[in-house]
Amino acid sequence: MATITRQFLMILLLVPQLLTTLAQTCSNHTFSDNKLFDSCKDLPMLQAHLHWNYIPSTKNVHVAYRAAQESTGWIAWAINPTGKGMVGSQAIVAFQNSNGSMTAYPTAITSYSPSMQPSSLSFQVSNISAEYTKGEMTIFAIVGPLAKETSTNLVWQAGTSVLNDIPQGHSTSGPNVQSMDTVDFHSG
């Protein structure tokens, strides 16, 4: 009897963790417009996921970055070609603007207090768009052509407020300062 009770308790403890893990995986996500991506990575912070297709012939990467977010907040995904961390990142930011439509644009992060205004990046980015559905914001873009390296430093962020169609600062502790990783777009 004690063995059955222990097993039952273990199942009760593990099932919620398993369901949470499955819900947060990138591999079971279906995009609203049936876009398909060959590779994906569950990012370790901010309930975020990166999906991509690397095109070797052009060295372009078709990207979808998605993260849980309230409609009043914002998300950003970036490549830092010069190092790790926020400063030096070349970002794409997305938010729901004052007229209710989604806005997405590139912005270079040059300091710890960036303007978050649209600006040019140090590499090409095109076909930028964003959507908000079911409590998630998603950024779509084509990045590249990439330089010789397909392995790169990633940074991503989320903030809770947008004022006059400008994303406002994010938390400077916890997951926001830990939202860094690397990815190799070619090998996954």
From TrEMBL:
Matches recorded under CDD domains: DOMON_CIL1_like
Q: Where in the cell is it found?
A: Membrane
Annotated Gene Ontology cellular components are:
membrane
Q: Which Pfam families match?
A: DUF568 (PF04526)
UniProt keywords, alphabetically? Electron transport, Membrane, Signal, Transport
**Is Signal one of the keywords?**
yes
Quote the biased-composition stretches of kind Polar residues, using this chain's numbering: 166-181
- Report if keyword Membrane is assigned: yes
Q: In the record, which residues are listed under signal peptide?
A: 1-23
The name under which this protein is listed is DOMON domain-containing protein
Natural source organism: Cannabis sativa
